[in-house]
From TrEMBL:
Protein name, per record: Hypothetical phage-related protein
């Protein structure tokens, strides 16, 4: 915490911005399309503006799946350091036969847009925070049981595997099983766990079913309302 100047505090008195540092803030919003109509293992890459040397946190929300509004299918992705010097989103698997429209919320620790007026924080002559910044407000959906209710407001999630389910295929010789992999996905009405891939293997191949006990997410209503102004898109 800076020993001079001005600080911004939360309603519980905790300081989250001062002239000493830039907190984790929204730096980019990307709407992208991932096509899995021809290849369920297609690899898609979406470069961000965050340099590899900086921290990067990426959340995703399904805007539509094919011609259907909402989230009926899953996409698995992760953030990785790209060859061009910037973090990128790498989608590694999606629901077969579907085209997904996805919104990515990218957070890092630098200011991307200087508004014409407002509150500014400086350190050594450099702006480290402005009143238009949208800090990361991360939450966690704790899911001790598969039936635990999910959040019901618009959400975006840190993408991760949510569950594995194995089902035998009757009448197959040798015995064969289908493994269904589910992922956490944010959408306009909360968080769901759709299938993003199914794998066929010999029954008794050693797969162990299970489910994740929760996922990190953000509520997106505020970000969706103000990101264009905050990032200078408007």
């Amino acid at each position: 915490m800076a020993g001079f100047g001005m600080q911004i505090t939360r309603d519980d008195g905790v300081i989250f911005a001062s002239p000493e540092f830039t907190p984790t803030v929204l730096v980019q919003v990307m709407d992208r399309t991932a096509d899995y109509t021809g290849d369920v293992s297609a690899q898609h890459y979406y470069e961000t503006i965050v340099p590899n040397a900086k921290k990067c946190f990426i959340f995703h929300k399904i805007l539509s799946t094919g011609s259907q509004q909402g989230a009926s299918g899953g996409v698995l992705h992760y953030a990785e350091q790209g060859p061009n010097g910037f973090w990128r989103v790498h989608t590694t698997a999606g629901t077969a036969g579907l085209v997904h429209t996805i919104r990515f919320y990218v957070f890092s620790e630098f200011v991307v847009n200087i508004p014409e007026w407002g509150i500014y924080f400086y350190k050594d002559g450099q702006i480290v925070y402005t009143g238009n910044c949208l800090p990361l407000d991360i939450k966690f959906w704790e899911r001790p049981q598969l039936t635990t209710p999910a959040p019901t407001m618009p959400c975006a999630t840190i993408c991760s595997v949510a569950r594995q389910l194995t089902q035998g295929i009757p009448g197959t010789n040798p015995p064969t099983a289908l493994i269904f992999l589910f992922c956490f996905t944010g959408f306009s009405s909360g968080i769901i766990t759709p299938v993003f891939r199914q794998i066929s293997q010999s029954a008794g191949g050693g797969s162990v079913d299970g489910f994740s006990k929760g996922c990190a997410y953000i509520e997106t209503s505020l970000y969706d309302q103000y990101y264009k102004t905050s990032l200078g898109y408007a």
